Amino acid sequence: MNCRHCAARLKLELIDLGSSPPSNAYLSAEGLHGPEKTYPLKVMICERCWLAQTLDFAQAEELFSAEYAYFSSFSTTWLQHAERYVADMVERFHLDRDSRVVEVASNDGYLLQYVKASGISCFGIEPTASTARAAREKGIETLETFFGAELGVSLAVAGKQADLMAANNVLAHVPDINDFLSGFTNLLKPDGVATFEFPHLLRLLEQNQFDTIYHEHFSYLSLTALETIFRHNGLSVFDAEEISTHGGSLRVFTQRVASGGRVVTDHVGRLLERETAAGLASAAGYGGFQSRSERVKDDLLAFLIEAKRQGKRVAAYGAAAKGNTLLNFAGIRRDLIAYVVDLNPAKQDKYMPGSRIPIVDEARLLADRPEYVVILPWNLKSEVMSQLRQAGFVGRFVTAIPAIEIV
Q1: Residues of the chain with CATH 3.40.50.720
Q2: Residue 58 DSSP class
Q3: Cα–Cα distance between 162 and 99 in angstroms, integer?
Q4: Closest by alpha carbon to 402, among 319, 284, 302, 299?
């Protein structure tokens, strides 16, 4: 396979997680009687532009179907993050009633609801029918389609250019990264700003976050790689900051190369220096990740097997995509984890892909009172622990990333 950005031949392997179904392909009870489609899950590093990327097997249309079950609004932490983002951007870029905000991959309107409440014109672009429908129910205009260069041009011609474009946790999800980014250049006003948030590759490597690798994530991103990719597609980075979401992310601020006049901050240079020091612009920086990830897997399996031998009951919390990667890489099935709790009704009464562990509501957990709960979305550990303690759960909590921890 060739690099999705620069077309160089890919030879450097970061990790091979075996084969698994798409992480959001939850099964119905009827689906348990049939086969599942699985794909190899392997990440390669481009040694020309340093873009980390999965090998091509699944198509975006298969991964982001009409019944896509990830709804952003079920996390109070994420809602708070979105509300702060809107307040900060309104203040920093002096947005008002004459401005327009566009969010790409707007999901269920989790962010644009705060833009709308501020009296600022906005609309979202979201390809999955289930989440787009939820956004419209909030009164948010939503285009139900994939975003790219052609759509950016057509919207601009229609007079819908944006002062601010937001792209939170979507850049990793696009197979054609060049076409996608060109769409931002086309849709931004001459002095407009586009922000991108994404899990930071540096943190993924440092914290053994292999479970954030799944088919829906086509790319794993560093500022080192993105600075080149942005500029190739008509955007330049003028600021960047580290944020705590998803176990350590970057928020990158970009403007149009041809017309943007904002001064580049010192944060950009410092982040690039850190990535260089960590080896992200050399093959050596990616070594050892496979063995470290296998150690995490082995330690979790050892804990679960020992708990079973002792007659302890183990459940899990959060039917998240990262949880599916972990469960399938480790080969964990219902004999080791009885069920997974999730607040999202769209996931309840379904089954985790691959592992086929049932997904239930929180009442089941509180009634069963298992001795252990494995928190699969470890980035929400504090929120989940607080929520369950307040609900009366008295057992112990387990996380596997970056190393097994029992609280």
Answers
A1: 289-406
A2: S
A3: 8
A4: 299
Q: Considering the chain, tell me which residue range(s) the CATH 3.40.50.150 domain(s) occupy.
A: 72-286
Q: Which of 90, 286, 296, 149 is nearest to 208 (CA)?
A: 296
Q: Which CATH architecture has domain 72-286?
A: 3-Layer(aba) Sandwich (3.40)
The H or E element that residue 19 is part of is: strand 12-20
Residue 214 contacts by C-beta under 8 Å, 6 or more apart in sequence?
A: 20, 22, 23, 41, 321, 322, 324, 325
The beta-strand segments (E) located in 144-187 are 162-168
Condensed to tens digits (0 to 9), the pLDDT of residues 106-120 reads 999 999 999 999 999
Q: Is 169 left (phi over 0), alpha (psi -120 to 50) or beta?
A: left
In the block, residue with structure tokens 């952003």? 72
Confidence at residue 76, expressed as pLDDT on a 0 to 100 scale = 82
- Nearest residue to 166 (alpha-carbon basis) of 252, 257, 267, 76: 252
Using a pLDDT cut of 90, give the percent of the chain over it: 88
**Which two three-digit tokens encode residue 96?**
């008002």
pLDDT given at position 374:
98
CA distance 22 to 59: 10
266-273, long-range: CB within 8 Å, 24+ apart, which pairs?
267/239, 267/240, 267/241, 268/223, 268/227, 268/237, 268/238, 268/239, 268/240, 271/223, 271/240, 271/242, 272/223, 272/224, 272/227
Query: Omega of the bond prior to 402 within 30 degrees of 0, cis?
Result: yes
pLDDT, greater one: 64 or 111: 111
Reply yes or no on domain 289-406 having CATH 3.40.50.720.
Answer: yes
Task: Give the per-residue pLDDT at 72.
Answer: 61
Q: Decide: pTM greater than 0.85.
A: yes
* Residue 69: predicted pLDDT: 47
Read off the pLDDT of residues 264-311 as tens digits, 9 standing for 90 and up.
Answer: 999 999 999 999 999 999 999 999 999 999 999 999 999 999 999 999
* Secondary-structure percent of the chain, ordered helix, strand, coil, rounded to 5: 40, 25, 40
Q: Report the distance separating Cα 104 and Cα 8, nearest Å.
A: 28
pLDDT of residue 316: 98
Count of other CB atoms within 10 angstroms of residue 311: 7
Mean pLDDT, rounded, for 156-166:
98
